[in-house]
Amino acid sequence: MPKAFFIDTSRCTACRGCQVACKEWHEHGVVPTLQRGTHQNPPELTPTNFKIVHFDEHKIDGRIHWLFFPEQCRHCVNPPCKDFGDMYVPGAVIQDEATGAVLYTEKSKELTPEQCKDIKELCPYLVPRRDEKTGMLTKCDMCIDRVQAGMQPACVKTCCTGAMNFGEREEMVALAHKSLEKVKKKHPQASLLDEDSVNVMYLVTQPRDKYFEHASRDIKPLSRQAFLQKIIEPVRRMAG
Amino acid sequence: MTQHWIDIKNANAILIMGSNAAEHHPISFKWVLKAQDDGATVIHVDPKFSRTSARCDLHVPLRSGTDIAFLGGMMKYIIEKNLFQKYYVENYTNAAFIVGDGFEFKDGMFSGFDPATKKYDQKKWAFAMDDKGLPKKDPTLKDPRCVFQLLKKQYDRYNLDDVSAITGVSKENLLKVYDAYAATGKPDKAGTMMYALGWTQHSVGVQNIRLGAMIQLMLGNIGVAGGGVNALRGEPNVQGSTDHAILWHIMPGYNNVPTTNWPTLEDYMKGNTPKSNDPKSVNWWGNRPKYVVSLLKAWFGDNATAENGFCYGLLPKVDPGVDYASMVLFDKMYKGKVRGGFIYGHNPAQSMPHTHKIRKALTMLDFLVVGEAHETETAAFWRQPGTDPKDVKTEVFLLPSCQRGEKDGTISNSGRWHMWHHKGYEPMGVSKPMGWMVVEIMKRVRDLYAREGGAFPEPIAKLDWYETYDPDLLAKKTNGWFTRDCTVGGKDYKKGDQVPSFPSLTADGSTVSLNWLYCGGYPAAGKNLSKRRDLSQDARAAKLGLFPNFSWCWPVNRRIIYNRASVDMNGKPFNPALPVIAWEGDKWVGDVPDGPAPPMAMEKGVYPFIMHTEGMGQLYGPGRVDGPFPEHYEPAETPVTSHPFSKQLSNPCIKIMDSDMDILAKPGDPKYPIVLTTYSMTEHWCGGGDTRNTPALLEAEPQLYVEMSQELGKEKGIKNGDPVIVESIRGKVEAIAMVTVRMTPLTVKGKTVHLIGMPFCFGWTTPGVGDATNRLTPSVGDPNTTIPEYKACLVDIRKADKVTELAR
């Protein structure tokens, strides 16, 4: 049975417990950061930050909206990174059958920096990052070691408000729909992002364009031509 | 907290004011959101739109330092619209008491003020007494001198126009909050107030909380599930530290510190043991002699006897009326009157107001011992920016302290739960628990006195000291044991038995207890209740979210205090759906009641507020030094030159340090037109000594920032991310501008007032993060507690051409 996350941003207080717990569990080092006029730091995912809480703020009709979005790999049902990984180095990207987790293996070191770049850019959410030190492609691994040991991912375990949820996909889908129904009473524009194609389902309270660019896959649909070119580019490069 | 964290879920309305609960107490929002799920209205009144506001139904920005005006308006609204819980107010508060002729209030001043000492003669505010020595009452609440009528008169001036003009809150928003919160005045509804340093850190801090509590009494919200006045206490055991008196004015268990007015134990007891002639008043502090003698026995052991006043004479006595608070201590240090001392787990060179002065004061010391997990700005003051170590005479010792996970011990959380924490791993390097440091240092001091003698050695020589630091032994002694075979309350005890609970403590020397409040938490050998992790509960407790078998809480495992006020005079719960306690047949069921006595209406029944001499909730509180009713006064530094409620601009009893460095901007100073408020954040703890040394946290919040409105940014030509200089009359600080829609300019008395906010956790020992925000704040304090006014002072802000304190 595939597993899934359900992330209810209407319950998120951006305490960043998930961001720090992720680092702690993976024993990740830190990246140097600077204050840039936002609480969001580091600015984006890195090889040592598989989870980043995004902060977006708006004043709409005199009302302030501060939107929090704990970003991570969506563990796509049909992951494009795996499709392309398989083309380059079979086994570099795998999908765990038991959990549906999309995982980058030691073999990803065999991917060239350019191939890694391709995989990143083909990700609808621009998630994968190449670790320049190890050469590995990196991202959220669903805390597969914890999950296989019957525990919850570190980010879910640490969340105290119920924003982060993890379980059987079926249960999470049900929870997502139940939550949406409730949240819609206060936030009529609330929606679930890409629920059918991902195993990390987000509930957001505002229209997608109020969030950062890669919150969902269809925010800026590519033209057919651009899409074809994007697909063909790595194939063309492989060929020659 | 009168309640505990989980109880927040039972509220119908939640007023978060003077607190940024979601950021500073993240776990609280587990329960706030549960209440919201069940339909509670969650309101945040705060200058800044924070992560708390983001999850609230309503955020209302107000000018920092105007909480009393805001709440005074609510009190007027509640009285005028008749929204108070009449039965509760009549029977459980002092609303009916007649105030004596000495009390007067005129143009912002209460009677009895002496301008020379800046103190009131509080005797002027006493109740009128009848021939039995009881306060006179008018149960109809009509007598013009009864508390209810005086209260009504006091807040009648707090009309919407004036409150709006001074707080900067629109009338519409005022009404929205008043309406939503006052709706909890119904017997079966409850509202909770969650506050923290945003209420306390003002020159009217105590009165901010008083007025909150008074509103809760009016609405019948104290003692009930989902109600209460809830001080959200900090992570490093703030609750435990006040219980055990890491404050100069009290001894453990909230007993006054001895003064020279009370040279003998007899004098102390006479001066501190209230009497009541009312048989229905429990007057719990009438038990004080038992607690103080047990404390003296714990300190001086067998040396403490009835004959020698249990060594009371060996305790240091403070001079009456003299303030020994930390702000005063550092003032004395600055003036060269302190030679040296110990600072444990505290970073005053970063977190005290006016840190320029604090940092200078430290250089006046001959020696300084700092116990810390990291080298902080305090420990490293001798090499601070602008200081040449060669010029510093102070000898500094840094004792490395281990972290909580490296030692056994207890903490007391906000809900008064006493919880044991187990050592998880060995301390790093040579670091040690701070308790070990105290025990070992004192052992050596005692040895020195034994070998060499010295002036007045007895207080040290006669201490019942410890061979080694043993947390379990201290936990046992905190509860207390019997010093001899004896019979108490008809039960026989053997010497060395643990005291089962504080009603068994005695004033004759047969018991020791380091803190009576905690007596009952370790009631028998091997029975340390702070270690309990049992989640079992009955159906009633499950509904309330009560876990009576998990840890232990003071007093006597009572999870909601003043719970006798949750039932009517016959013991029937005001809210039958969520009973805290109930009188069923001939006994109480539910939480541990405030004493075993039957309901108030019965012959042996008692009043609900057992800690007050008169047994009633104090709408009128003559015990506070700055007035029996909270009154609006401006902060010491204010952008206005007058306010609508009186001619008295600031708190007449305000504590202001008077050294040459202690300068204040004048009211409405055009050079410093902006209000600064300072705060903490989720990622960093207090002065930041620990968290700046925790890489993942510093990565998330790396540098000092200042949150400001887009309007102010435009006015000052400052863009988001620009380096800026914030300047007060006392100093300047570099920060990165966070220009945000979350800060709102306020209209105060018809003019725009800008507010900016800065965290205070960044200091120079962490390179490139910025340095102390408290270089801006003034050494000004509340007259009751001398807590500094960190939350409101005056500054200006400008774009910086270059910065030296911040890495770019």
What does this structure look like?
- Chain A has 240 residues and is of the alpha+beta class.
- Chain A is 30% helix and 20% strand.
- Chain A contains 7 helices and 10 strands.
- Chain A has helices spanning 17-25, 80-88, 113-122, 144-148, 154-158, 169-186, 224-239, and strands at 3-8, 52-60, 63-71, 93-95, 102-104, 129-130, 137-138, 164-168, 191-193, 200-204.
- In chain A, strands 8-1-10-9 form a 4-stranded mixed β-sheet. Chain A has a two-stranded antiparallel ribbon with strand order 2-3. Chain A has a two-stranded antiparallel ribbon with strand order 4-5.
- In chain A, α2 packs antiparallel against α3 (113-122).
- The radius of gyration of chain A is 18 Å and the shape is globular.
- The N and C termini of chain A lie far apart (41 Å).
- Chain B is built from 22 helices and 33 strands.
- With 808 residues, chain B is α/β, with parallel strands linked by helices.
- The mean pLDDT of chain B is 97.
- In chain B, the strands form 12 sheets. In chain B, strands 26-28-27-33-25-31 form a 6-stranded mixed β-sheet. Chain B has a 5-stranded parallel β-sheet with strand order 3-2-1-8-9. A 3-stranded parallel β-sheet of chain B has the order 12-13-14, with no helix packed on it.
- Classes of the chains: A alpha+beta (240), B alpha/beta (808).
- Chain A binds chain B through residues 11, 13-17, 19-20, 23-24, 28-39, 41-42, 57-59, 64-66, 68, 160-162, 182, and chain B through 22-23, 26-27, 29-30, 33, 37, 49, 51-55, 59, 682-683, 695-705, 719-722, 736-742, 806-808.
